[in-house]
Amino acid sequence: MQRRSKIVDNLDWTTIFIYILLVLMGWMNIYAAVYSEEHNSILDFSQRYGKQMVWIAFAFAIAITIMLSSSRLYVVFAYFIFGLVLALLLSTLVFGKVVNASKSWIQIGSFGLQPAEFAKFATALALAKLMGPYGFKLNTFTSYVKVGLIIALPAGIILLQNDTGSALVFGSFIFILYREGLPGWILVFLFFLVSLFILTLIFSSISIMVFLYVLTLFVFILQTRKYKDALRFTVALVGIGLLMYLVSELFDISIPRSYFFIFPVAAGVLIAGIYGFVSRFRPAYLWAAFLGVSVMYSLSADYVFQNVLDVHHQKRINDLLGIESDPLGWGYNVNQSKIAIGSGGIVGKGFLGGTQTKYNFVPEQSTDFIFCTVGEEWGFLGSTVVLGLFLYLLLRLIRIAERQREGFARIYGYGVVSILFFHIVVNVGMTVGIFPVIGIPLPFFSYGGSSLWAFTILLFILLKFDSDRFGH
Amino acid sequence: MQLNITTDKKYIISGIIVLVFIVIVVKLFYIQVVDSSYKFSANNNVLRYITQYPARGLIYDRHGEMMVANQVVYDVLIIKNQVKPFDTLEFASMLGLTTDQVKDAFLQVKKQKGYSPRKSVVLLKQIADSSYAKLQEVLYKYHGFEVQPRTVRIYPRAVAGHLLGYVGEVDESVIKNRPYYQLGDYIGINGMEKQYEVELRGVKGVSIFMVDVHNRIKGSYEDGRYDSVARTGKALTCTIDLDLQEYGERLMVNKIGSIVAIEPKTGEVLAMVSSPTYDPTLLVGRDRANNFKMLQTDSLKPIFNRSIMALYPPGSTFKVVNALIGLEEGVVTPQTRYACYGGYTVGRGVGCHHHASPLDLSHSIASSCNTYYCHVFRNIVDNKKFGSIEDGFSNWKTQVESFGYGHALGIDLPNERKGIVPSVNFYNRYFRKGGWNSLTIISLSIGQGELAATPLQMANLVSTIANRGYYFTPHVVKSIEGQPAIDPKFTERHPSSVDASWYDYIIEGMDLAVNCAPGGGGTARIAAIPDIRICGKTGTSQNPHGADHSVFFAFAPKDDPKIAIAVYVENAGFGATWAAPIASLMIEKYLRDSITRPDLENYILQANLLNRRAKKK
Questions:
Q1: Nearest C-alpha neighbor of B584 from the set B532, B537, B540, B527
Q2: Whole-angstrom distance, CA of residue B537 vs CA of residue B514
Q3: pLDDT per residue over A396-406, tens digit each?
């Protein structure tokens, strides 16, 4: 009895309250999204909202079970659970069922399970187990390899299942690594690479090259204050370009225009590199190396985009960046999603008043595009409230993670934050058209047992650690 | 130190999260609050406007008998996206089509303006009721097909095609200029259907429905608050006497020409026949375009409404106008006599037929003496009081125009021609100023030369004589449902320039022309009917298109005129031979509703004058 009350007292009831609120709001919106006159009882089990109620009941049972269990269990069995999920993922590859072109479902009787959903919390547990002990430091090559393997293994298998969206979620663990010692500049550098990738798709390679040159030269001047040298150097390079142009005009040699840019930049990189190396002037060859690498990266990014990515990924990204517009084809989902949300206005059309989602203009309106119903029926105010709840939950979870005394619990906590953050931002971002379409659910909202249970397990293991933080 | 860095990182991570959320909220604010185009697109997605087509107004004849009614036909519509493979042969045979026609319709559908595979578009138009009955039973088998009722015209008696006009689908220019009309709407294209389009068409209704992504109707929008009900077009009562009209058309079979009959007291048109005519049923339904082309290419021009569009020289019938003007001007009296021995010999001269001589005014009309009217005409235009031929002629022209000549009368039908009364300027241009005199234009005295009038204007003239000096603008609509009166311009008297007292002498002459004793010189004795006093005037109008036209106009009874009628039979020779008997039979039909002279009737019914077009010399 005493143990029981201790659990209750130490529980973070605010988080639980937000969780219940989100789950119920999700249920209500699923009801509205697939509502029809013929099936209007919310308890109709032939409909998605009826089924979702069953999933919710199971989720609550799972939550209570976790609360009654011991948190030590998860520390001890972390690798075991991780291994088990990996085995499940692998067996899905063999025995799985293909849904929406990805082989990510295991069918047990009439019941389908998505192991990828559970891989997320299992990976967070494994990471916590690896990085939790006091002696672990994220500064050696081996430590990076170990961490990399734990993240890459499930992500790789999920990628093989052709479920790119779920695989990308594992990228969000970068937050854990950052929190646990990954230098900040890597984060900045990654951000730079992603931005450069996007810029490469939008702008021509010449303008990207000029942009990179100016940017790196600016950093160089900031570091060394040698702006006169930098200016002379630039004038010289422009001179080379002009000379080439004149020569080609004079002797009537036809050279592609891009060469007038590529050649001077290449010459600049070469000269600065050799000069810096010979005179041991570090900023010069660092500049040369950085410019050279980013130009090559930018050029290869284009190649990767055209030749490595699937056509539908290319199309979705092109649509997002406004490079290609095809509102009835590739852009249909996002266009309809924006119409649904946009038509909600400030206060929305009211509960069951939405037409775009109810009449199926928005595809997947109860799963990946559930936020459309929120936007259409509850408007800007309702959407902001939902986003506000999510934001509050994330900040609260960071606080919870930070107050853990054990490394394991803290790292796991950040894992929860990373996964939820990625899901929320990518999902909502996709429905409003600032992220490409990636089929991942909105936590606690989207229809589906697997995702709801996985998010419940994810969250409540953290809450269990939190309530146990004064014990042991 | 270590602790500091980690707490910093906590804030950096929180900061990143907050920042990203702010970006999303800003984007949400933009699409939900700032940009209103999404609301518009949402309505476009979900709202379907379904037009409720009203039935067109019915048309009755003057006795309330149905002239034009409606019949329900069905348009077959498809939503291309929902159409699944089906048995083309079965479908086609049900509708009485070939499979190729069905396939062709499917190809044509895509070329329609505003075609969308997600919206209903018309595949086949105006499927007959009987085909629809078969189709309806199996319609469930054909996914993506629906049927929409429309009404088209039917004609219980298949007469008066020219007068009634026809209905067709609106074309691009109508849609552009008249916002009421949309693709697929019907509009009156000619005749009364065109003239009274606004009254007849009614008001379209609209039902607004909400549909899902498959275009399935999910319910009415806002409980039908913005819906409107279609209002049926107003019924018209026509002035036409359907029996008389039908009889006129029968009499004119195998003859080219026109009959116009007017009730003098009101200006109501009792019959308006243009021959050859056509069955108005031809211009209804799926074959309308083909039939129209066939009628259009017919060398006898059956679509041409001769009653109001053909211009004929009035011929001798015009002598009554010159007589009236002469009396009014005082240049001739009822007792004035002119001798005639085979014609008028001054100038180029005008020939005349054999008759007693000299004749007074009334007898000159009865015998239709050309010489008499050469004198009268010259007396009018060469009258000393005017001092010049130009002024004398202008006075004559003004008076002629007061009888409804030279300008459109304003009948409530489209495309009425105004006829020709030449002007001083015309002759000055033609002959040069001062290069012409009363002898140059002497043909006008007997209704030839540069004069031209429609059969309607001729009927209106005889109506004016019957009224002793005034006419009402001829019109074809007697009343409009829900309207207390017709246009007031139809109840306004138009007096002629000639005093009412002079008319009796003219009427006397017209009476003599029909009813004089045998050998009394009357030109139209063939038209006489026992117990009905017909007053008439023959004409034989020379024309450049072939043999003379046979012309006759008359009114009856003499003392209480109930019908005024003009008859033209193209290239048929003397007025007395064909036009006069036709007018006589029409008058008898109208006043007695039975024919007492079956021989005369048969003579007319059996006559085929179509081969007389070549000029006889």
A1: B527
A2: 8
A3: 999 999 999 88
Name chain A contacts of B9, Cβ cutoff 8 Å.
178-179, 184
B23 to chain A: which residues are within 8 Å by CB?
434
Phi, psi (degrees; rounded to nearest 5) at B50: -110, 120
Chosen domain end from B210, B238, B266: B238
- Phi/psi at B345 (nearest 5 deg)? -110, 0
Of B510, B504, B529, B518, the closest CA to residue B587 belongs to B529
- β-pairing, B167-169 vs B186-188, is antiparallel
**How many angstroms separate the CA atoms of B386 and B514, rounded?**
37
Same domain, B260 and B227: no
Q: What does the alpha-carbon distance between residue A340 and residue A374 come to, in Å, rounded to a whole number?
A: 9
**CATH number, domain with residue B447:** 3.40.710.10
Instruction: Give CA–CA dist A150/A142, Å, rounded.
Output: 12
pLDDT band at B350 (very low <50, low <70, confident <90, very high): confident
CB A326 within 8 A of CB A359: no
Of B17, B39, B210, the CB nearest to A421: B17
- Note the pLDDT of residue B1: 37
> DSSP state, B203?
B
- Which CATH number fits the domain that encloses residue B215? 3.90.1310.10
Q: Which of residues 362-381 of A touch B (CB under 8 A)?
A: 375, 379-380
Q: Which of A169, A421, A383 is nearest to B19 (CA)?
A: A421
Considering A12-26, A176-190, B152-166, B562-576, the range whose residues carry the highest mean pLDDT is A12-26
User: Would an 8 Å CB–CB cutoff place A179 in contact with chain B?
Assistant: yes
Write out residues 382-421 of A within 8 Å (CB-CB) of B: 383-384, 387, 390-391, 394-395, 398, 402, 414, 417, 421
| Residue in chain B nearest A361 by alpha carbon | B213
Under an 8 A CB cutoff, do A175 and B25 touch? Answer: no
Q: To which H or E segment does residue A177 belong?
A: helix A174-179
Residues of B in contact with A344 (CB under 8 A): 32
Q: How many CB pairs under 8 A join A and B?
A: 112
**In whole angstroms, what is the distance from residue A2 CA to residue A7 CA?**
9
Cα nearest neighbour of B27 on chain A: A432
| A86 vs B: CB within 8 A | no
The yes-or-no verdict on residue B339 having pLDDT over 60 is: yes
Cross-strand pairs, B262: B269, B564
Angle between helices B455-466 and B503-515 (to 10 degrees): 110
User: Does A336 sit within 8 Å of B23, measured CB to CB?
Assistant: no
Q: What local confidence, expressed as pLDDT, does residue A155 receive?
A: 93
Shared domain check, B218 and B329: no
Q: Which residues of B316-330 are buried (b: 16+ CB within 10 A; e: fewer)?
A: bbbbbbbbbbbbbbe
- Give a yes or no: residue B292 inside a domain: no
Assembly ipTM: 0.87
Structural domain count of chain B: 3
Work out the minimum CA distance from A60 to partner chain B, whole angstroms. 28
Specify whether B254 is located in the same domain as B379. yes
Residue A135 has pLDDT above 60, yes or no: yes
B530 and B384 assigned to the same domain = yes
Chain B residues touching residue A178 (CB < 8 angstroms): 9, 12-13
Q: Is A124 helix (H, G, I), strand (E, B) or coil?
A: helix
| Domain that includes residue B440, residue range | 242-277+304-612
Contact (CB<8Å) B20/A425: yes
Once rounded to an integer, what is the mean pLDDT over residues A218-239? 86
Q: Find which of B25, B28, B46, B47 to mutate to test the A interface (most A CBs within 10 Å of its CB).
A: B28
**Does B57 lie in the same domain as B7?**
no
